[in-house]
């Protein structure tokens, strides 16, 4: 075990840290996370669109078209917001003007999201105006469905390429330089003229001259991976849980390093569920089981590794240090914040606690999966902040289904049982250490 820990610490940990800090990966993570406030707000309106109390739902029926608008322009155009966030974050790492980079990237993404003229001719898209049939000209109509989570990977690629073009042209001085004394915002606008033109022409040619749809192509290529990691595959769910816990054991923020890889799938999967639920599909018939909210509320009880159970065990410990640590970590643990326990026990590089830290959430994942496919618990249909206590959060994201809260309690008891024998071993080690020092 000591040899394995040494290998992980010396060989794996530095590589993982480099991946986590790579500027493009970091920009993707920051950019997508920046959309979180909008998706949270949009989630509340999904609940209003499918209110769980029939009497209230009936009264809301006349207002459904209006209530749908906040959802459509938050979650419904998620990729558009993410484009700006990713480009802005990458520009910041290059010390470029963030506002300019974000605007150029958004322009590029929109250009790739509009169907070419020949496609309009093929599908004969029409509008009925003043009782007359009017053909919609190419480029005059933007379907906001093309700006949703299904285009998130296209948004990522477009944003990164746009910023790299901007940086390249600035480094090579392919810009218009203004005299000294010109206000910075004006100077930045002229500096961005050539990069903006280059991005516009590049993505216009790709989409409208060559007919290559970046968004659709990437979505189709990555769809099998999404179905594996953030769809309905139990194996994919277990792989995700294992990797997140594994990186935490190395002392690396698991979701941070996994975020650039899996967060786009998470965003797409929960957006698919929210879309289906807004169209009144039953909560038990959603497209995806393994959303981020599934893991957050049924698996990460107290934080990654389901450490609330360990905190409760610490509270009963005969070790003075562990008992005090339990007191310190209990309140944050209720709100799913467990850094005090991960780094305080510590769990990082701890051979005794490594096994339950990984095993417990994997067992809980299987239990929650079985409860979901047997329809004992609905699938997640909205999202909320991670600092809500688990039973409440679980009920909120499943349209206030009481069995979701019951499942949280069951999984907590399971994690308590799994952690207990390892806790006793660790407690014995800690007491021996305290006696030797005292």
UniProtKB/TrEMBL annotation:
A matching Pfam family: PTS_EIIC
Single GO MF annotation: protein-N(PI)-phosphohistidine-sugar phosphotransferase activity
CC terms in the record's Gene Ontology section: plasma membrane
Ranges where the PTS EIIC type-3 domain occurs: 8-422
Record keywords, A-Z: Cell membrane, Membrane, Sugar transport, Transmembrane, Transmembrane helix, Transport
Superkingdom of origin: Bacteria
Subcellular compartments: Cell membrane
Major location (coarse): membrane
TM region(s), chain numbering: 31-49, 69-87, 99-121, 141-166, 186-206, 226-250, 294-316, 328-348, 355-377, 397-420
GO biological process, one term: carbohydrate derivative transport
Topology versus the membrane: Multi-pass membrane protein
Matches recorded under NCBIfam families: lacE (TIGR00410)
Entries under PANTHER family matching the protein: LICHENAN PERMEASE IIC COMPONENT, PTHR33989
Functional note: The phosphoenolpyruvate-dependent sugar phosphotransferase system (PTS), a major carbohydrate active -transport system, catalyzes the phosphorylation of incoming sugar substrates concomitant with their translocation across the cell membrane.
Protein name: Permease IIC component
Species lineage: Bacteria, Bacillati, Bacillota, Bacilli, Lactobacillales
